[in-house]
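Dock MGD; give full complex structure.
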Amino acid sequence: MNSEQPEVHYRTCNLCEAMCGLEIEHKDGNVLSIKGDKQDTFSNGFICPKAVALQDIYNDPDRLRQPVKRVNDEWQKIGWDEALREVSQRLLSIKKKYGNKSVGIYQGNPTVHNYGTMLFMRNLTKALGIRNKFSATSVDQLPHHMASQYMFGHNLLIPIPDIDRTDFFLIIGANPVVSNGSLMTAAGMPGRLRDLQKRGGKVVVIDPRKTETAAKADQHLFIKPGTDTLLLLGLLHVIVRENTANPGRLAGHIQGLESIDTLTVDFSPEDVSSQTGIEADRIRQLAQDFSKATSAVCYGRMGVSTQQYGTLCQWLINVLNIVTGNFDRSGGALFNTPAVDIVKLLGSKGTLHKYNRWQSGVRGLPEFDGELPSVTMAEEILENEDGIKAMITSAGNPVLSVPNGKKLEEAFRKLDFMVSVDIYINETTRHADIILPPTTGLETDHYDLIFNLFAVRNVAKYSPALFSPDKSAMADWQIFKALANHIKPQKNPLKKLMDRWSTPQRLLDLALKMGSYGRWHKGFRWKGLTLAKLKRRTHGLDLGPLSPSLPHRLFTKDKKINMAPDLFLEDIERLKRGLVETGVEQKFDLLLIGRRQLRSNNSWMHNSHRLVKGGDRCTLMMHPADVRKNKLNGASNVRIESQVGSIEVGLEESEDMLQGVVSLPHGWGHNRRGIKMKIAAEHSGQSINDIIDHSLVDTLSGNAAVNGVPVRVEAV
Ligand SMILES: Nc1nc2c(c(=O)[nH]1)N[C@H]1C(S)=C(S)[C@@H](COP(=O)(O)OP(=O)(O)OC[C@H]3O[C@@H](n4cnc5c(=O)[nH]c(N)nc54)[C@H](O)[C@@H]3O)O[C@H]1N2
Ligand SMILES: Nc1nc2c(c(=O)[nH]1)N[C@H]1C(S)=C(S)[C@@H](COP(=O)(O)OP(=O)(O)OC[C@H]3O[C@@H](n4cnc5c(=O)[nH]c(N)nc54)[C@H](O)[C@@H]3O)O[C@H]1N2
Ligand code: SF4
Ligand SMILES: [Mo]
């Protein structure tokens, strides 16, 4: 190889859910350029600014490359052997002294973008017998899993909008033009929406802010935060009363439809109009447009998951798609058939076994799929005598990501021991006793175990590592495996052998062979998909559009969709009660919602100059009428106060806001003492989660309600 010539490497971006193909030019261990891979079968060259910053993470002088230990508030570098030994000894001794419940773990968002972690984290949690598990899931999409568990029998069987073929796309509480899609993996969202409109299709957005997506839509309706359940009930009311409900082919595969008829009686468009802030006629028209469209799909994301009735929203969205005959058909919502079918691999033990088997100690919120709500983490450390004494955080920054970050900081300070598996000393990991830094991004091979399952086409791609890590470096999975082996050494010789054999690549190969496109061997040769074959498809493998899969893909015992799970019907009563008693003090006259930004990735990519340069982005957006009403004319900075705290940020007047609603992005607040991220600290902003009340929650699922938080705003 002529070392004068740059080399080209193709991989999938691991930063968000969109799975964009990248073309990376590099030479002698340096990245020369990062572009969209035009030949990628899924993304066709689309890329966003974050992917270009992958090189900044790789080169970041602030990134940890060796374990560090906190000694009198100084960080000392230590060797891997010493670090792993000390971490396992400390965790083990706390567990022995206080029992299984004394060790907790929080897993953050990059976990699901790292197949090694997905495959080997279990070794560690099993070795410790951890019961107090938390993750970003309960600050994000838990309602989707609840709805899927109870309606389809499996928490991961999430319906995906067929946006490439639909004629009517109703988006509620999502901003895919900025987020690039979530639980709807589809690289190049702006282009796909444009294509939808070019085909003559319509895009309608329901959002308290005229977002970047709303700006491109055919229609945008402002909605008051937290009232989407009412809108959905109103839409269903019209569809049921006007006799346009027709589940089509699925009619024989659903049960409980009658309950929907009864349920919607009290929610006519007129009944829900004042609470939602949407005129009755518009609700009626929307219901008619949706049910009359040749094909239509309703999709709701963060804005409707992270509110107090998140589970009801996700349930009713599924119901809407089903009763209008838009479920399990092209142009509607369908299940994906991924090459590694984790839904099948994990199987299902039946609906009742995954929910409320135990509760959080202080507030009694339910467990789901082995996890407790993250909003309870701080109190389980601070207020529960039998609670958590030691924490593991992995690939997460809960101090900035979980409501009431200040309380969480206090909790972390009180722990007997904390270890973080992370690449930075940030707002969370600065509280750790030891930080174990894994290899990252470009040094890691990649396969999307999770997001292929949520993709709008069936696709598969394997990306090798671009750069080989240092000899002494460890990948996330190696760290978890090593810790597990220290904590609970394997005695059984067969299991020991298995443990030695298992690597992410070997397990992936096995899973592909066992998957929907793998075929059992004939004459010792695999006929179907293998990792070796996938490796040859540098630009990915297209396995076709989503296709109908019901009823056989259902995991319910009777192979029917449960349209009206009792648990959800009962929760409607909570909704009705909530409508009368607001419980909010009058002094908080505004509702706070979030705002994702193209050049942010949750809390952790602000140490890249190219992503933070330009003006302050951590600003409060407010409608001009509210500016006047709150006497903020001419104010450049404002104080936002909530039930749990206050912060000061810049003010940005914007007609794009619904009156009475203000918006602030999350993931900022790098002004904490002791973080070692120089650029981020210079562009710190403030953390929205310092003022988000941890008591606001969808009590059914335990998901945090980070949207629709009562606040007041004054000039400083
Ligand atoms: N108010 C409000 N709060 C929110 C949201 C909101 O919209 N509003 N959004 C919520 C959502 S959807 C999410 S997903 C969460 C995210 O919440 P978290 O997952 O807790 O936070 P991240 O900012 O994603 O932090 C990721 C961490 O992983 C580290 N990291 C990066 N790559 C790797 C890696 O390869 N290995 C390891 N071990 N570590 C790595 C980073 O340094 C960082 O510390 O935030 C939630 N919080
Ligand atoms: N650039 C960028 N992309 C990202 C991320 C990022 O941080 N930056 N994060 C990734 C992650 S982890 C996730 S989970 C996804 C999230 O993906 P999305 O859900 O598409 O992203 P959000 O921007 O949070 O969209 C939520 C929308 O809901 C609106 N909203 C707030 N409250 C309500 C309400 O009560 N009702 C209704 N109808 N709408 C409401 C907000 O105004 C916002 O437009 O994005 C992913 N992609
Ligand atoms: S949209 Fe997501 S996957 Fe695509 S390049 Fe940007 S960060 Fe990467
Ligand atoms: Mo997320």
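Observed: DSSP finds 26 helices and 32 strands in the chain.
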